[in-house]
Amino acid sequence: MTVRNGQGRRDGGRKYPGASAVALSEAYDTALLDLDGVVYAGGEAVPHAVEALGVARAGGMHLAYVTNNALRTPDEVAEHLTELGVPAEAGDVVTSAQAVARLIADEVPAGSRVLVVGGEGLRVALRERGLVPVESADDDPVAVVQGYGGPGMPWARFAEAAYAVGRGVPWYASNTDLTIPGARGIGPGNGAAVEVVRIATGGRAEPKVAGKPLPPMHRETVLRTGAERPLVVGDRLDTDIEGAFNGGVDSLLVLTGVTDVAQLLAAVPEHRPTYVAADLRGLLTGQPEVVADGDGGFVCGGWRASVRGGELVLVGVPGEGADVMDGVRALCGAAWSEADRPGGGVPEAGKALALLGV
Predict the structure, then answer these.
(1) The domain spanning residue 273 has which CATH number?
(2) How far apart are CA 328 and CA 342, in angstroms?
(3) Confidence at residue 345, expressed as pLDDT on a 0 to 100 scale
(4) Residue numbers of the domain that contains 308
(5) How many domains is the chain built from?
């Protein structure tokens, strides 16, 4: 097996994606899969996700579902996955609600009251840790926890959080993702709701956050999955990929969610995935090597990318195939190397992306 720039390297100087001579589902024992934008969007399966996960599972890869969305319980998530054709049990699901509940339980006495601003997933996770969910700032909570409550979350819930936080009650958040993908597009996530409370309290308080990319979520995932050679699979650079970087594990970015190719090319080192694929079919293949050709260019498959006058230049290599994702990987090599060069910056990518049609 050949895996380059992989196997848990945390070097911020990684200049181009990694490569694997075997399928990623063979190179890693466990896929730590984000859900929204990776497996499903707006409740419906992402194209190719069900089939790809089925093949990976049949080949012996353990699948765990790690989500910053604290709305639903693990049982509900597992039931939804199973309905979509992805067999799962509650024990396969790790949520930011579980991570924040453990964080709170480590810092307050057992049996403490916690004001919940969010969905049932938070309440179940708190009870699992021996804490008591309450609904009002007047219920003498010792902590406030805020998680995604869905698009129908009443404004009054944010007011309860603001009342308690304004009185000095410690504040926790399951995650601070500003957006969440859905069937109709990108909507506001829990981070946007956290900002509502922050504004209402004059910015005087700061929540302790548990979700990706922060250590409490990584700790929860390790405790619940026992993975030895995990691969984080996600669609967000600032949560999934940075979380993998912070945890010292490898990552696969799929382009089915919130991140587009332009954002990938502009990624800072801690947001650069080990691997990149169009969708979850990327688990079932190896990853081609991006080769620096010694003349300022980066070659992958049928493409060569370079930087000229602050602009990415992409050309097809004669006689070879022209897989779009190989072009993306070559562009990553050129863009990231240019950004890391002393005095360098993020090159303009418009013409190159238009050539690829992405």
Answers:
(1) 3.40.50.1000
(2) 23
(3) 93
(4) 291-356
(5) 3
